[in-house]
User: Fold these one by one.
Assistant:
Number 1:
Amino acid sequence: MSPERAPAPPFDIFNIYFDKIYDPTMHLCFSLDGRIDEERFRSAFILVLESDPYLSSRYTEENGVAYWERIPREKYEKAFAIHTVDGGDLAPPDVPPGFVDVYSGPPAAAAIFRAEGKGDVVTVSIHHGCSDVHGLIDLASLLFTVYRKLGEDPAYVPEFRGWYDRDANKILDKFSEDEIKKEAGRDKRIVDRWVFPFDYTGRGTPRYAFRIFPEERLPAVKEFGKRYGATVNDVLIAAYILALIELRDDPSDLDNLRGVLSSADMRRHLRRTWEYSVENLSIAEMIEIVAVEGEELGDAVRKVAEITKGRKAGAFGAFDIMFYEDLYDSGLGAVRNFFNEILSGYDTTTLKNPVFSNIGVIDDGRFDPGSVMNIEYALFLPVICWPPGFLLCASTWKGSLSIQCGYEEGPYSAGTIDKFLDIIDRLLP
């Protein structure tokens, strides 16, 4: 292993190649009640990137092998920005704070958006090729920690992490051979059966749409789920499916399998005690149910819960790890062919199952800017999709549940997106 670069694992490569169907940059957006010290925050960001060689690298391929390769400091200093927001300007969380170019590096960015008479909006971004959402949260938490410690000691420097293990194969070590065989034998075929309504294929203007619910809604959703032996995640998935059925108003969606791709974090298999885990350890699983006319949310929740309970048992995720490892072992050409085949399928049918990701609680205890200001709200801003791809996410801050989606306006109608979110709002307890 070269001291200046390290091999990129298959999960990183696949999430980088997904840039053909969506922009893989995702963000955490923090609304503050005051102004952050921009020079100290800039210094904290640079120190965080220097402490993790993967975060101060670019993605590159050489002789059929993918690498993370470190870049000079002057290049990743440009990943920090301060923006002045005038009265008519759009700023996060309504629009993306920017996009990360993983090929030039670094795979992370941070920005401050400042408007006269208002508290700052701070964003922390990462390319999905470098990390999943869990890692983004860990990165942002470390950034606020370093910022706070620099206020106490301007000479503070975080520990250098070196080229740590990012390979998902460590998950397989937690399972027996029989568990892996059972998981590998499960039917994992994903059939695209429907699509979120769009006006035309192609690109448009990146936008975000979201709903921030009052704090009393989350306990109501939890209590509703308990009646059916379901989690909040199960209730959200069920509401998502039913809302899309109502929005599409297509009779063929009833009495037939319809579902969403849902993400699952495999870190729970590791039972690790340390917090920092900026890497890709999440997989996608298809959750499909048959909705019958006249059934209500509780009926759909019960069906979703039955599926997710079964998925949580055994070597969940082992098949995905082995599939990606085997494909990459065949060479980067095989990986490119795999993605080209996916893209050609979308061109032929324009069908693509929508995606759902509940990133869970953004723990406010991990984000402390110091005693002179507070974070009023934190919101996850997901990747930006264009037809036929569509993604809905959920996150929770201080007991307040929010749902959000990133889309390109033009091919997707803002009015249709708003109507969809309103339906989910109406369906949820």
Number 2:
Amino acid sequence: MISRIWYKFLNNLGKWPCDRNMKSIEIFDGLYGKGLDIGHDGEYTFKSDNITRLNIHPGNNIDVVYDGGIIPFEDKTFDKILLRCVLEHVNDPESLLKEASRILKENGVMVIEVPFINPVHAAPIDNFRFTPNGLKIILINQKLQIDSIFYTEDHNWAIKWLLWQRLKESNEIGLKYLLKFIFLKYFINPLFLRSRTPDEKNFAQFGCIVKKVNYT
């Protein structure tokens, strides 16, 4: 009984406060028109009620479940599309972008967020990392053009995640685990890993506002 209580205490104490930046969601939610959130994970809600939430798995607040291939909507259905931390988890990002471009209206807007520096997560389905220029190259092939770039997480955010993941994977429990956690959370983090405003030289994750263009 005591061991179970101790384990529960340490497990709850050990939840790393590595909060996610919500900027891409806020930008998408503030755009006008009918929207589609591809890969919605159920962890956030929208102010707008004109948004369809799509995923390959059924779950909390998922409106449409699809097979990961053809997105089940007609061409030029949506004014805006959100792809938040999705492209790194698919086998063929260009195919997904092609489908997203197909169902996006002319002059529609896509909000995309992707990782640059992240530990492997959701393994084994964690396939890619991106730079702004690398993402730009694959977007151009799908008649999509980056209008602006924003940065959502800094280097220290990624370091905290890496350190915390290493600690969680140590398979330790008890006083040694607790001391490591206290050292990391209350000494390393406040003194050396304070979050800074991410920018083009200090980012672990970034987003972009993408417009569908008609190349002639």
Number 3:
Amino acid sequence: MEIDVNQTILIVVGVDIEPEEADRPLAYKLKSVIEASPRFGGHPFRKCIVISDALYEHDKLIQVCPTIAIGGPGVNAVAGVLVEKLPVYLSKNNRYFIQLDKDFIDQKISIWGMDRDSTAESIEMFIANGILDDFLKTIWG
């Protein structure tokens, strides 16, 4: 599969059993929201792909793509890097965190919670607060 590193959004989840069970389904829900966006449609090189943190770390080329890490630094190696790199943009009672560069100069985002429910809530807030729309606007115009 060919990807355009400027048009492809990667959603990265951890590779162990816990993130596969808890975070991967959430990642696919987010993928479906992205693919339903009017900004997504009709452009052959626009893709949204869910991958593991192991694949992401192994392939330097795809690390250029706009990226959303789902799951905390304890279960997602990409989130483990981003937790030190990105500021917290939104959090709630130290239960969930959305980390990003508010100007999207760095097109990496980390979304995670202390458990599956709080991670799901953080994704809902990412969408409901318009953060996803702003991210897509930055990437796809």
Number 4:
Amino acid sequence: MSTGNCLIWWSLCGVHSEKFGQFQQDSATPHTSRVATKWLQEHSSDFRHFHCAPKSPDMNIIESIWVALQCAVQKKSLPSGTPIDLRTALRDSWCEKPPGYLQTLVDTMRRHVISLLCARVGPKRY
């Protein structure tokens, strides 16, 4: 999912700190683009920032969720490609996930952390 689409999605959700808690970011290229930087400056009061070390290994299960949603949305033919179509496709794709999907991701984290520590390298694709 492109940075622009993610920001559109985030804006459509109506960002409020009591709903979303913290915004986690490191210095990865998508987080430091002009579009992302401008958007973050405009919305900085809407959420708390949680900064990670620059380009730190990503051990957050949200990355697996984003990849799964991105793949599911790309398989759908969006009629006009509007932000509302994207929101609907993301919501529908999320609702199609099996009930144990999140628990499966949580259960695999131990294995991912161990393999990252053993490899002592950057992020690992799940």
